[in-house]
Amino acid sequence: MIQKLIRNKTLFAIVSIAMGVYMCFAGRGVLYNIVRVAGYVMLATAVGYALIYFFGPRRDQVQLGYAGLATAAGLMIVWMAPAIVNLFPMLAGLGLIVVGLTNLMHAAREEGMPAASKVGPVLTIVLGALILFHPGAIVNAVVMLAGIALILNGLSELDMIRRIW
């Protein structure tokens, strides 16, 4: 039982390291692939709804409608993966700027608040601006950091397995 657990844990650690290395070298391409896989899942869902409609016990028009919507969404996601990936950092940057401005206005309105209470909102605004004006670099950095985290996680798992074994 323990040998099987260790074997499975070793496999997951090696996969984690491999995914981390891939993420470090592929950068934003990893996100394109993840979004495309989501689109293909939507297309498979559309096929499932169509099969249920045509071969199910009853012909419910809603199932056919779901199949059509899932097909349209899946095709759009697959074809527009780069645009979708580029949209999220821009939305995150705008969101951070709005939150930072709101927090800065609240901190400015409150009497008796120390000047240091404005540092957090200003840093949030600066981070939002960095993400908004340099989304590609930020996305690549985040993907690389996630890859490094996966590599470190896999190495620590292998070290733990080595100590147990």
Tell me the count of domains: 1
Oligomer: single chain
Radius of gyration computed on alpha carbons: 23 Å
Helix residue percentage: over 70%
Write up this protein.
The protein has 6 helices and no strands. It has one domain (2-164). The chain is flat and about 70 Å long. The chain has helices spanning 2-26, 29-55, 61-79, 81-109, 119-133, 135-164. With 165 residues, the protein is mainly alpha-helical.
Question: What is the gist of this entry?
Answer:
The chain is mainly alpha-helical and about 160 residues long.
Highlighted features:
single chain, 165 residues, mainly alpha, 88% helix, 0% strand, flat
Outline the secondary-structure elements:
Layout: H1 2-26, H2 29-55, H3 61-79, H4 81-109, H5 119-133, H6 135-164
